[in-house]
Amino acid sequence: MKKIITNTILMLFFIFLATFFVEIFLRLFSPFHLAGNIKAYQYDQELGYRLKPKLHFFSTTDYQQEFRTNQLGTINFQESFTDYDEIVFALGDSYTQGTGLPGDSSYPFQLDLKLNFHRGEYNKRYAIINLGLAAFGGKQAIAALHIFQNVITSPDYILYLGSNNDYQDDMLFESGYRHQHLVDGNPNWGMMLKPIQWFANGTEIGKRTKLTINRIRKGKTKRNNKKPSGGNRENNIAKLQEPIFSELLVISNRMNAPLIVSWSDLPEKAEGSYLWLKEWASERNVYFADWHPKVLSVLEAIPGLPQKNNHTGGHHRAWINSMIAESFAEQLVEATMQKRLTTKPGNR
């Protein structure tokens, strides 16, 4: 019996020693960087998880990560929007959030500057409220809209930038996966939350284990959900998300808040979701922020200009976000003019 105990202790010691050296090796020679940082997020009963309010998170991995939220919980440097003329809700996922870039390089922030600068001065006309609080799908985006409608007020305009992972994100949300994230305040993990957080996010072995489990879980969710008929899952996610766009249109009509939509695919993938959504919007008199021609014009003048961030944060370069913002700005101005025409006493 004593020999068995001794052998067991020795075996556990060598396993610990091997694990320790593997961890040290990975930290020194192959560190694994995650897009975003779990410390910046908290549990939310309705959304699953979201960025913490009153947060200014700044970190440097292989790129500069920055998250800035106000006391309301939106991704804005402003703490209040009461003195702005118009309220604009920008819905979306990490492409709206501005993942991979400093906080002032997201498309909603760039849109804010483009709309509110007039004759060399900043005027508080449009409050661009960034609600890309996490890697949301369409269902979470709509939930966020309703939450902040109560927190702030009903928006005067609604923007939605769709992405190719929206359909999968909706499946994960409905399966309960989004409520299982290892974020602060998650009651599903109980007393084990902090130790598991440390292992999954603070160690190289844990990061890789977490990534593997996430891939298995996402694959299982895909297999358990039948592919809807019509459309190609890879090339036309927007078509699969048509119920989301239709629901947003109903909400925008009810609120008398014009809806402006677009898609985050770069021009080389325009044959799928981007063009489908553009046609969908045209058929329903919905505003569409058509930013691809602007990007193609820049690329024609400056061939080889990078479009994607070449670090683990991924996503679009800042200049792409600027083109997206410019296109949303054009549609917002047009929607504002149309709204004023239709609300004149003689036109009611």
Q: How would you describe this structure to a colleague?
A:
The chain is α/β, with parallel strands linked by helices. The protein folds into two domains: 1-30; 38-347, SGNH hydrolase (Rossmann fold, 3-Layer(aba) Sandwich). The chain contains twelve helices and eleven strands. The chain has helices at residues 2-29, 94-97, 107-116, 138-151, 166-174, 193-202, 204-224, 237-240, 242-255, 273-283, 292-301, 318-342; strands spanning 41-44, 48-51, 56-60, 64-68, 86-92, 117-118, 121-122, 126-130, 157-162, 259-263, 287-288. Helix 3 (107-116) packs across helix 12 (318-342).
What's a concise summary of this model?
With 348 residues, this protein is an alpha/beta fold.
N/C terminus separation:
92 Å
- Secondary-structure content class: alpha/beta
Largest beta sheet, briefly? 5 strands, parallel
For the record, what is the CATH homologous superfamily label of the largest domain?
SGNH hydrolase
* Mean pLDDT score: 89
Work out the number of β strands. Answer: 11
Shape: elongated
Q: What Rg is obtained from the alpha carbons, in whole angstroms? A: 23 Å
Low-confidence stretches: 229-233
Order of helices and strands: HEEEEEHHEEEHEHHHHHEHEHH
- The CATH C-level class name of the largest domain: Alpha Beta
Number of helices: 12
Strand line-up across the major sheet: 8-5-9-10-11
Q: Roughly what percent helix?
A: 40-55%
CATH fold title of the largest domain = Rossmann fold
Oligomer: single chain
- Secondary-structure arrangement, i.e. CATH architecture of the largest domain: 3-Layer(aba) Sandwich
What proportion of the residues form beta strands (DSSP E)?
5-15%
